[in-house]
Please model this.
Amino acid sequence: MEHVVIIGNGISGVTLARHIRKLSDKKITIISSENEFFFSRTALMYVFMGHMKFEHTQPYENSFWKKNKIDLKTGIVHEVDTNSKKAILDDNSSIDYDKLVIATGSKSNKFGWKGQDLDGVLGLYHKQDLEKLELLAPNCKRAVVVGGGLIGIELVEMLLSRNIPVTFLVREKSFWGSILPSGESQMINKHILEHHVDLRLDTNLDEIIEDENGRAKAIKTDKGEIIECSIVGLTVGVSPNIDFLKNSNVELGRGVKVNRFLETNIKDVFAIGDCAEQNEAIGLRRPVEAVWYTGRMMGEVLAQTICGNAMEYNPGHWFNSAKFFDIEYQTYGWVFAKPLENEQQFYWEHNSGKKAITISFDKNNDTFLGINTFGIRMRHDFFDKVLTEKKSVQYVIENLKDANFDPEFFTQYEKEIKNAFQNKFSLNKAV
Model:
């Protein structure tokens, strides 16, 4: 019986295992070092904030795996021998495979700062980070979070929920300024400040200072300022977790290099999820995508290929969502912080400073390219269809009510958005 070994039990690896089991009776083993059972990584913050218990982050009963004949093995793979088809664990035991899938996810970035491995310094990616935070939080008088992205703002919100004052160091001149257009980014800056966060824009970490017990007691910024703290959150992005493959024959770039079928350069070895890097980027997508839903899609697609129905990975139109404290964010299609040559953008912000829309369109032919929304929840299927059919921006403006999750609620903004758009562009062209 063919043995499929999956390294990693995140959303990619577990989705793959479930779908292989639906399609076949192959032997399946999942190897993981983090937690015996799969859990929803995106829910870690809600556990810390008291909204749910850790066991609620596990979508499957613990008996599910045995019932579905999926073997779970706890351990760290430190080497892969593709010639003898073995995954070698840190206790020197090995597991033979017929097909190997690398689904090891990401690791938090560190950039060689002095003190980055002290007690009190952590990321926010693994269950172990949450456990560390639980131990440190009760006695913490101030925390410093370094890195102005989605994980950084989550960690800030978590700490504030325990009434811990937070200093937030953001390298860019405005929060998430490399991703969000200027108006949106500035709106989120204001929202962060409203939550009494000590937000330091255009500020880098220089070093982490230790006390006599080897714990973090302060940080020093690149401006020479020393800020006392006992928790330092390093949330400066993530990188593919692939160090254990460096001595293997598997081709690596930033991640594990794969083709559209998620195959590596070695027969019967595949990679999916955060650790996979497309040889050629798909459209405007990045070659490595650390996004939950793309990891799930890769697992579903690769199950088909492994079970004899070769299928290319095609993630469709880009979309994503996040939350900045009380403001929900959604994006569909492409809206760039710095518009492309052919791209025109329309920005509308409600006077409350809590709702905004940016619409991107092709200035040559008015084709709708993408939308960012803040505090206004939109329907995925509407924008998926509009992007596929290459509808005009005018069509989207005229039909925004249909795109909204709560059309009655949205009517109070619809007229204002339409008028603002028409006043700016005077587009009275055919839809």
About this structure: The first helix runs from residue 11 to 23. The mean pLDDT is 94. The CA atoms of residues 106 and 239 lie 5 Å apart. The two ends are 57 Å apart (CA to CA).
